[in-house]
Amino acid sequence: xxxxxxxxxxxxxxxxxxxxxxxxxxxxxxxxxxxxxxxxxxxxxxxxxxxxxxxxxxxxxxxxxxxxxxxxxx
Length: 74
Known about the structure:
Its main location: cytoplasm. InterPro entries: CsrA (IPR003751), CsrA_sf (IPR036107). It is found in: Cytoplasm. Homodimer; the beta-strands of each monomer intercalate to form a hydrophobic core, while the alpha-helices form wings that extend away from the core. It comes from Allobacillus saliphilus. By secondary structure, the chain is an alpha+beta fold. The model has no long low-confidence stretch (mean pLDDT 90). The protein is elongated. Strands 1-2-3 form a three-stranded antiparallel sheet, with no helix packed on it. 0% of the residues are buried. It contains two helices and three strands, in the order E-E-E-H-H. 38% of the residues lie in helices and 27% in strands. The longest helix has 16 residues, at 45-60. It folds into two domains: 1-39, no CATH class; 43-74.
């Protein structure tokens, strides 16, 4: 993991098209601004984990398995 120190108003560049800017520091919270292309999905990590778990549960669902089997037959 790369750890960087930034002050309010400073930013970090990721590749050519993603910029993360420190917008504010208030107590123990940091507000970040993220500038990225519209095709890049951005989630808080706990929400992203919930999405992964929901997708895994859906893939185990019998209706989903039947749907996939029917797609393969076509």
